[in-house]
Amino acid sequence: MLTLVNARLIDPEEGKIREGGIVIDAGRIVELLSPGERAPARGAVEDCRGLCLAPGIIDIGVKIGEPGERHKESFRTAGAAAAAGGVTTMVTRPDTEPAIDDPEVLEFLLRRAVDASPVNVLPLAALTKGRAGQEMTEIGFLTDAGAVAFTDVTAVANPRVFQRCLTYAAGLGALVIGHPQEPVLSQGACATSGQFASQLGLPAVSPMAERIGLERDLALVEMTGARYHADQLSTARSLPALRRAREAGLDVTAGVSIHHLTLNEFDVGDYRTFFKLTPPLRSEADRMAMVEAVMAGEIEIIGSFHTPRDEEEKRLPFEEAAAGAVGLETLLPAALRLHHAGQMTLPALWRALALNPARLLGLEAGRLAPGAPADLVLFDPDVPYVLDRAKLRSKSKNTPFDLTRMQGRVEGTWVAGNRVFTREAA
């Protein structure tokens, strides 16, 4: 038994912050304590020193290098980065080498995860074989093997193939995660069209490509009745389509990358490749529209979309450099920017980081309530520091926040009541 006392409890389910403590036994929360209430006589007691205690983050869309690209990220290094970032569950992507498209590969991945990662790992599986967009995977067998949802990470270009996948998934009650970008318009683009992209001379794509991709996906969802999650919305033009789908009663949800909530196209500056992402960074107006959509609950989930790239892939001209950024360890302090800017309360932020991802995947986590798993993060929301990418625990160091002044960091992380991270004293 473990009791955490003298904490500010961030409760996303109740939408409140209150003083108190938590009693943990057998990997679960068994009791919430009021201020001054005595801890049980047995078990260890830990003083949280007035810091914030919240449900552990559930990060959907984490890329791991196993199998095939272990030199970029392993379950061991990703798990260490996740624990240091307050992420207690990584929902991993299938864009590996080979892709996670059959039960044998999925079972290998889960064995590796159990052996090497200190945090929970839930796998996504590919929607089509080899993620080639031609032939549907065995969704039923992959579900039985442990897949929690299905995605090709990129858009399935052929609408007939995508319709078949959605129809089959609907029959099984499986969740399909789509990447709403029109693939032909987006091909080769590395910036958002506009004056800034023109000044830099970069191949660009209109924000309308996202709306076109989303409109197509939602039309097919309406045809099939499937459960659908749009993984990374990034433009204001997509929001009306999302609203119409919900008004029509479709079972659709949406997410956004923390980078698209906290950065804009001007951060690319003089062709800094750590800021090359997919989709590309958008205008400040689009960034603010995404922030407002999260505040209003129109976009339910915030993720890091952790994408490790090695130095050779990033030390290239901007057009040729690989897209993506690591984010497991920077997700929490980057998200706290929204809190410090007065745009989101901590409970609302944790609703998007923990409670809503848990609900989407049917998990018990994401809550501070008796019976919930004791997956917790203790953090100081106010401590300032300058982020040094060399100190990140990920194998790859491609973060856009290198040498950026951050505010807020994790002090401790628990998974099923076991402490998996403790910040060392400076």
Description of the molecule:
By secondary structure, this protein is of the alpha/beta class. It has a single domain (56-361), classed as Metal-dependent hydrolases (TIM Barrel). The protein is built from 13 helices and 18 strands. Strands 1, 2, 3, 4, 5, 16, 17 and 18 form an eight-stranded mixed β-sheet that branches. Strands 6-7-8-9 form a four-stranded parallel β-sheet. The protein has a four-stranded parallel β-sheet with strand order 10-13-14-15. A hairpin with a 2-residue loop joins strand 17 and strand 18. Helix 2 runs parallel beside helix 3 (139-145), helix 4 crosses helix 7 and helix 7 (208-224) runs parallel beside helix 8. The longest helix is centred in the middle third of the chain and has 17 residues, at 208-224. The chain is globular, with a radius of gyration of 21 Å. The model has no long low-confidence stretch (mean pLDDT 96). This is Amidohydrolase family protein. Residues 322-420 form the Amidohydrolase-related domain.
